[in-house]
Amino acid sequence: MTAITRQEVAHLAKLARLDLTATELDHYAEQLAVILQSVARISEVAADDIPPTSHPVPVENVFRDDIAYPGLDRAEVFASAPATQDDRFRVPRILDEEQA
Amino acid sequence: MRSVDADLIRQPASVLAAAISEGEVSSLEVTKAHLARITEVDERVHAFLQVTGEAALAAAELVDEKRRAGAKLGALAGVPIAVKDVLTMRGVPTTCGSKILEGWRPPYDSTVVARLRAADMVILGKTNMDEFAMGSSTEHSAYGPTHNPWDLTRIPGGSGGGSAASLAAFEAPLAIGTDTGGSIRQPAAVTGTVGVKPTYGGVSRYGLVALASSLDQAGPCARSVLDAALLHSVIAGHDPRDSTSINAPVPDVVGAANRGDVRGLRIGLVKELSGAGYQAGVLQRFNEAVELLQGLGAEVVEVSCPNFDYALGAYYLILPAEASSNLARFDGMRYGLRAGDDGSNSVEQVMSLSREAGFGAEVKRRIMLGTYALSSGYYDAYYGQAQKVRTLITRDFNAAFDKADVLISPTAPTTAFKIGEKVDDPLAMYLNDIATIPVNLAGNCAMSLPVGLAPADGLPVGLQIMAPPMADDRLYLVGSALESALTDKWGHLLIEEVPSL
Fold this sequence. Notes:
The complex is a heterodimer of chains A (100) and B (501).
Chain A: H1 6-15, H2 22-39, H3 74-79, E1 84-85, E2 88-89
Antiparallel strand pairs in A: 1-2
Chain B: H1 3-9, H2 13-22, H3 27-45, E1 48-51, H4 53-68, E2 80-84, H5 111-118, E3 122-127, H6 161-168, E4 174-178, H7 185-191, E5 194-197, E6 218-222, H8 225-235, H9 253-259, E7 266-270, H10 280-295, E8 299-303, H11 311-326, H12 347-358, H13 361-374, H14 380-403, E9 406-410, H15 426-430, H16 437-442, E10 445-453, E11 460-467, H17 472-490
Parallel strand pairs in B: 2-3, 2-4, 7-8, 7-9
Antiparallel strand pairs in B: 1-3, 4-6, 5-6, 5-10, 9-11, 10-11
């Protein structure tokens, strides 16, 4: 279960929104296989009946009083945005060309 | 450098705070001395990514004015501090050691920074780190590595190497670190300084740029146990802005540090965190410290935590899984780097191009590892199984704490290694955190403090003390007792032996 192919790495990169180069794909295919082989040791532990821990401190349903706080300053937020227009974030087109 | 400056930068934070509050020295003088030191040595150490000199001087003057006006000041008022560049600070560039956030000026303060300001502390700047806290050497910073003041050709640990190095280079008397798998404790160990990972939920994560939300915890870095305790009490405590923050009183860490007593205390040696894989000089200094603790009246028992052998594997599935999800926010739309926005590329293409250009090799590696661990067909075998192992590790801790009040181990298996030695060997790099990771998985607390220099290379060795959740005071009780005994033996703190730069 630990072999990982170049195609799989390319698929992972697509899912993770990383436009990897060909060199990176080769390099990561090799490295991820080694890392996965090493971490796969955890399958030796018999843990079928053990409940999973997602969080070290079991807290749930944390509420606070419904008090309004001032939000972030718009000018400060936009000052660090990559592109703005008309007091909004400007983003590239969201549809593919055939959908547009 | 004037001799008075040279003297000021070597003082403990507790002494500086007392001198400032008594009016023997001004915060402005103390701050100027540290800024001068940064100018003098940081080109070689590279502990800082950003020095906020003007703001620091203004903050120092304000503290001095408050004191003259007779205002009541906090325990560390006027004392300078360095902050790891993973905590937001309003209007000051916060990069997390990444190109993707180059130049980003957060529009808000993290709770930790807000508490430092409220305590009238003087922030000197932001310290270097492995990109998004992924690493154990600070070599994965997009802005170049930090150098260990004990030997500039060696790593200062990571991810908080900048914070630890700033202390060892006397550029700052205190610093803030964050610890997801050892990023406060391992840098402390290899730089001869003190670092504490508080109980998970003990310090607010609001404004701490998330690596792995269920593991991350900010904490104090210092040159002595008492200084760490003073800083711990400034930053800890409930914060309604972090839903995982513990709503309970902060343990009396300062009282414990002042008391420093191990008589009658049961100290557990963790069998699995010693032996094979640990450098001889590390084990030698560790064993000597164990004898010293026995001599001080502690009862030393051996405990076994068999599932710790699987902690590294579980961690390198849980951490990348959480990181891949957390780092999805860096998409080049609202903040940070945007690449390939040429009017024809779609939003998805721009996101992929931005992330490719903005993230470094280790970050991409872990994002893909996490994406894999969470993908359907592998989820149960990897992420699901890792979460079960996490439960077993917590149970091992619980059983061990039935037999002992605190547990101890070496902090890191080796002393500081050479820059470049492990940078493209992820598995070798990951092994640095083998002794520190279990605590993050279970959510309890731990401290690293220096216990000597390894005879073969003359580099610092750290000892780790682990305590149950919300028993952070025990770290300081034991740490302070051990530090006093070592100081009596050496005639000074270990950090006094660091070569002058």
